[in-house]
Amino acid sequence: MIKETVTIPNKAGLHARPAAALVRLASQYNSDFYIHLFGYRVNGKSILGVMTLAAEQGAELELEMDGPDEEDAMEAVVELIENGFGED
Amino acid sequence: MTEHSSNGKEIIIEGVAASNGLAMGELCVYKRKELIAKPITLSDELVTVHQRRFEYALHTLERELKRLAEGADPELATILDTQIEILHDPELQKQINYLIEEEHTNVDYAIYKAFRGYIQRLEQSGNALMKERIVDIEDVRDKLIHIIRRSSPHTSISSGIVVTDELTPSEIAQFAGHNLEALAMDHGGITSHTSIIARSMGIPAVAGLQQITSQAHDGDEIIIDGFTGKCILNPSSETRTQYQNKIKELERREKHLQKILAKENVTQDGTPFELQANVEFEQELENVAHYHADGIGLLRTESLYISRGLFEDVETQEQFYEHMLTGINGPVTIRLFDVGGDKFFEGDYWEANPFLGWRGIRMLLQSPSLLRDQLKAIADVAGRYPGRVRLMVPMVSVIDEVRKVRHVLREVYDEMREEDEPVDEQMPVGIMVEVPSVALQAEQFAQEVDFFSIGTNDLTQYTMAVDRGNDRISQLFQQHHPAVWKLIDQTAQAGLNAGIPVAVCGELASEPAAAAALLGMGIRSLSMAPSSIGEVKSLLRSRTIDELETFANQVRSATSSQQVEEYFEAFD
Question: Considering only alpha carbons, which residue of chain A is nearest residue B340?
Answer without folding.
Answer: A83
